[in-house]
Amino acid sequence: MEFEEEPCRIKDEDTEEQIDSMEANEDKQHQFQKPHHFINKDENTTVLQTEKNFTQEQTGITEAKGSFSCSQCGKSFTHKCYLTMHMKIHTEGKPVICSQCGKSFVDKGYLNEHVRVHTGEKPFTCTQCGKSYKHKSKLKVHMRVHTGEKPYTCTQCGKSYKHKSKLQMHMRVHTGQTLYTCTQCGKSFVDKGYLNEHMKFHTGEKPFTCTQCGKSYVSKMFLRKHQLCHTGVKSFSCDQCDKTFASAWSLRQHLNIHAGVKPHVCSYCGKSFTLLTTLQVHESIHSGVRSHMCFDCGKSFLTSNSLKKHQRIHTGEKPYKCSHCGKSFTRLEGLKIHKRVHTGERPYQCSSCGKTFATSCNLRTHKTKHCPKLSK
Fold it and tell me: Is Nuclease set as a keyword in this record (predicted)?
């Protein structure tokens, strides 16, 4: 089939305003090039040029950037199709108007996509978990959660990402661009948004709450990962123990246990850990930094989880309920100990007289004050 080069439109992904600003920023910031798109007669978009990871400044490529300039406003673009699309704003304006909110667009195609914001229509559905999206491009990105695909790779260190924007931010580590540093623990980030999310670990703020179980998270990403457990779909299976997982990321973390891989090493004592989060908690013991502070009483904690447990003292929350008698507890450990009243379990035994106890605290008290053999 013969292809015709037409004014390029990124369907289901960017509005014309976004493309204009994206292209302008691309020239200013020297980041990543967009691929050429050509549309055949059946309206199927074909990518004929792969994305380039670096600009001419970063790789030495001599191809001129910003060579397509608008004669009316001076704005520059990396590809002719973007300029052609931009020129419509000058020659035709934005004649297509949304009847519901008054927003205007260059052509009807953009309007049709925009209308889904008002109708709530999500025609693109994931066949693995049933989640739906307004745009086909969003579904394509979502599928990477199930496939584990990370198509955007850093050519300097080999780290890969699911999203192009994440690679762009990562590149700042190599280019030496300004980093954003946490004033409480000194950790640095390539994006201010990441720093803002990180600060929630210090404050204990968890604004994203699961509507099904009430569990809260510091970011929308963590909430989305959690919500996979409610779908009941666990399509990722471990070939070593038959355990199944809701996401490829969870499976990869689990496989480290079988492989004995502990890539996260403590800089203080050399101890290794399977998970980065476990290492971070461990290192806080060495550093003595208690960066998680309770704003009610000023007490500080090593981890956000410890802070969360402590805050229940102030809120009165008792999320752990006994299935036998209905009594509630602030901590899971308290519920476990309480259940021994119903089960009769007494796991702590005195090595001197053989008497058993439900808690280690009762055993210690017995040994120091009441054990007949020890008191002799």
Answer: no
What local confidence, expressed as pLDDT, does residue 40 receive?
A: 39
Please report, for the chain, the start and end positions of each structural domain, with discontinuous segments joined by +.
Answer: 16-119
Which pLDDT belongs to residue 192?
A: 81
**Taking 80 as the threshold, does the pLDDT of residue 127 lie above it?**
yes
pLDDT at 32: 36
d(CA 274, CA 253): 8
- Predicted local confidence at residue 327, as pLDDT: 92
Region 16-119: CATH code: 3.30.160.60
Residue found under tokens 């309920």: 321
Identify the pLDDT of residue 325: 93
pLDDT higher than 80, residue 359: yes
Query: Residue 61, Cα to own-chain centre: how many angstroms?
Result: 33
Is 318:312 a contact under the CB 8 Å cutoff? yes
User: At residue 2, does pLDDT exceed 60?
Assistant: no
List beta partners, residue 300: 293
